[in-house]
Every structure is written in structure tokens, then in C-alpha cells.
């Protein structure tokens, strides 16, 4: 008798736990579906996709580039990318926050959005020209930079691409999926071309050019 009661209690507990799990799954599914339908889930997934690309693509490329370009030339390109990163900061100038907020407020008024977007692109263009002037000055006055002027100028294409790429616009409009897809597709295409074309240390400028072309291409398509 005691064994039967114990079995019944366990069965009741099992039914209660099973019911709670089913209800929890329903609640989670409903919440996720609602978030996806409202656009929040799509935007979050798109941002995760961008971050995933930022982490996984270097993991694919770096071992190959170190082997093919040798540490010396891979180091030169990395040095150039580090320098150019400062110009990317200059061109961004906080637009990732200010422009996104402005677009978010105006997103139901397409005329206002168009004016804001044009102003941001114009400002980024001016900062891009300012950065180029600074870079040219550095390549004329700093001996080490004179030796690497071609590399720096080629890599500056990534700054142009960054100025064109309207992630702030799509974040403000809460339509991140399209821009994330463009970014990821373009970067994967460049990865393929790197594996096909970059075969020896002399190709370090070609690798820099492919990187810049990818950034500019993504920016132009995104516009």
C-alpha cells in the first residue's frame, strides 16, 4: 500500500512538472514570437550576426594570412590597420549614437530621415577628407610612414567604406537585418577572394586592397 501511494505521489509530481514545463515552453515561444514579429527579435539577431562576423572571420583569415604573408608582412598590414583605425574613429565622430537617436525619433517622417541622413553623410565625407589630408601629411613628414605610404593609402579605403556604411540609419529605423546581411555577405566574398588571390608575401598590398574594396562595396550597397 505504501509503495502504491509513493508511486501515485511521484506520478502526480511528474504530471505537475510536465505541465509546468509545457506552459513555460508556451510562454517562451509566445514571447520570442512576439519579439520577432515586433522587430526587436530581428534587430537583436541581426546585431548578433554582425558581432559573430566580427569574431569568426578573423579566426578564419588570420592563420592563413600569417602563413602566406609571413609574420613580417602580416605585421605591416596589422600596423597599417591599427593606424587607420584612428581615422575611422575620427570619421565616426559619435554619429553611431547621435545619428541613430535622431533617425529613431524621425523614422515615421521619411523627408526628415532623408535630410538627416544626407547631413550625416556630408559630415562624414568632410571628416573623411580631413583624415586623408592628415594621413598625407604624415606620409610626407614621418620617415617610417613614407616607406609605407602605399599601404596606408590603400587601407584608407576602409575609412571611406565606414563613412558610407549606414549602420546608424538602419539601427534608427530598426531594420538591421538587411544591412547585416550586406555586411556579412560582402565580408564572406572578400574572404573567398583572399584565399584565391593572396598566395605569397608580395601580395600584402593586394590583401589590403581587398579589405578596402570590401568595406567600400558594403557601404555603396548599403546606401
What this model shows, in words?
The chain is 91% helix and 0% strand. The chain has 223 residues and is mainly α. It has two domains: 1-38; 45-222, no CATH class. The longest helix is centred in the first third of the chain and has 53 residues, at 40-92. The protein is flat and about 50 Å long.
What is this structure's SSE topology?
Blueprint: H1 2-38, H2 40-92, H3 95-106, H4 110-141, H5 143-147, H6 149-155, H7 157-164, H8 167-173, H9 176-197, H10 204-222
Instruction: Please state the average pLDDT score.
Output: 81
Total separate domains: 2
Tell me the major beta sheet: none
Radius of gyration: 25 Å
Structural class by secondary-structure content: mainly alpha
Count of alpha/pi helices: 10
CA-based shape = flat
Distance between the termini: 76 Å
Beta-strand content estimate = under 5%
- Reading the helices and strands in chain order gives HHHHHHHHHH
Per DSSP E runs of 2 or more residues, the count of β-strands stands at 0
Helix content: over 70%
Uncertain runs: 27-36
Q: Could you provide a short overview of the structure?
A:
The chain has 223 residues and is an all-alpha fold.
Task: Provide key terms for this protein.
single chain; about 220 residues
Amino acid at each position: 500500500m505504501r509503495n502504491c501511494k509513493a508511486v501515485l505521489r511521484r506520478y502526480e509530481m511528474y504530471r505537475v512538472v510536465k505541465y509546468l514545463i509545457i506552459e513555460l515552453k508556451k510562454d517562451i515561444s509566445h514571447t520570442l514570437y512576439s519579439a520577432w514579429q515586433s522587430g526587436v527579435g530581428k534587430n537583436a539577431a541581426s546585431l548578433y550576426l554582425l558581432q559573430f562576423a566580427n569574431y569568426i572571420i578573423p579566426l578564419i583569415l588570420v592563420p592563413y594570412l600569417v602563413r602566406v604573408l609571413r609574420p613580417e608582412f602580416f605585421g605591416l598590414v596589422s600596423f597599417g590597420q591599427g593606424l587607420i583605425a584612428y581615422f575611422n574613429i575620427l570619421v565616426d565622430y559619435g554619429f553611431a549614437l547621435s545619428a541613430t537617436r535622431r533617425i529613431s525619433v524621425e523614422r515615421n517622417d521619411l523627408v526628415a530621415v532623408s535630410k538627416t541622413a544626407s547631413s550625416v553623410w556630408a559630415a562624414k565625407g568632410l571628416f573623411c577628407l580631413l583624415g586623408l589630408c592628415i594621413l598625407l601629411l604624415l606620409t610626407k613628414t614621418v620617415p617610417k610612414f613614407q616607406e609605407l605610404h602605399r599601404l596606408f593609402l590603400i587601407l584608407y579605403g576602409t575609412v571611406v567604406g565606414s563613412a558610407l556604411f549606414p549602420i546608424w540609419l538602419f539601427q534608427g529605423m530598426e531594420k538591421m537585418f538587411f544591412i547585416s546581411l550586406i555586411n556579412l555577405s560582402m565580408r564572406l566574398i572578400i574572404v573567398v577572394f583572399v584565399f584565391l588571390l593572396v598566395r605569397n608575401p608580395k601580395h600584402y598590398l593586394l590583401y589590403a586592397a581587398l579589405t578596402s574594396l570590401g568595406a567600400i562595396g558594403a557601404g555603396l550597397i548599403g546606401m
